[in-house]
């Protein structure tokens, strides 16, 4: 058997981190060498080939920079990344050739396909809006997935020369029309009993297309996380979105 990939998990006590720990332990080609949570010394991850970060938006970027300095590839599921924080990681990686960082707002394969299908369809519909629905313990809104979806939709519409979705609203209670992400309206629902769900609504005169993805259990993210762990070392530099490992990018 070829050598196993040594893996460290950051945020290991969390909802995602604990699920990732079990997935890594169950994979024959991976070896769990460190589990870290808040307050632990990050140097414990330095012996890993790949670190997986499912922590909190406030710390994920500094974790990634420290891991790049240690020469460890990183698979990041934590949300909260903006263009500036991604640019800082890209710049840092330019000084560390060979190190790969994958940031993916959603590792569920169905969610990645939903985003890709929505971006393709969005050029052909007059109206499009995104609704994300999550458990009420989530700290950020709108979800990273919804922001990534809206950005991909906006890019596809711009490339196709499609204008903004029509909207006659002139009077509104603050927030009633959701957040504006690159010109696409995004609405966030928080409800006990939910895990992670997204709907993309596309409308034309006389028809509607709804693309919906549901993660009912956090195991849904594990095939994508393990794919990222196995492939991040062959993708030096920064990769944003699992779609690039699925030939959908
Ligand atoms: N990309 C994807 O497919 C998915 C991404 N997420 C994202 O993953 C992140 C984590 O989500 P959950 O597991 O639900 O949150 P959680 O709150 O259950 O877990 C976060 C964990 O990180 C730990 N932590 C905080 N600071 C830390 C530090 N400096 N070093 C190490 N650990 C630290 C916390 O103590 C906690 O155990 C969120 O940003 C969420 O949006 C969640 C599900 C899927
Ligand atoms: O916090 C969560 O739970 C999730 N976060 C990610 C996001 O913000 O998109 C991915 C998934 O939706 C679950």
From TrEMBL:
InterPro entries: DapB_C, DapB_N, DapB_N_CS, DHDPR_bac, NAD(P)-bd_dom_sf. The keyword NADP applies. One of its GO terms (molecular function) is 4-hydroxy-tetrahydrodipicolinate reductase. One of its GO terms (cellular component) is cytosol. Residues 110-246 form the Dihydrodipicolinate reductase C-terminal domain. The keyword Oxidoreductase applies. GO terms for biological process: diaminopimelate biosynthetic process; lysine biosynthetic process via diaminopimelate. The active site is at residues 134, 138. NAD(+) binds at residues 11-16, 37, 77-79, 104-107. Its EC number is 1.17.1.8. Homotetramer. Catalyzes the conversion of 4-hydroxy-tetrahydrodipicolinate (HTPA) to tetrahydrodipicolinate. HAMAP family: DapB. This is 4-hydroxy-tetrahydrodipicolinate reductase. It comes from Cellulomonas rhizosphaerae.
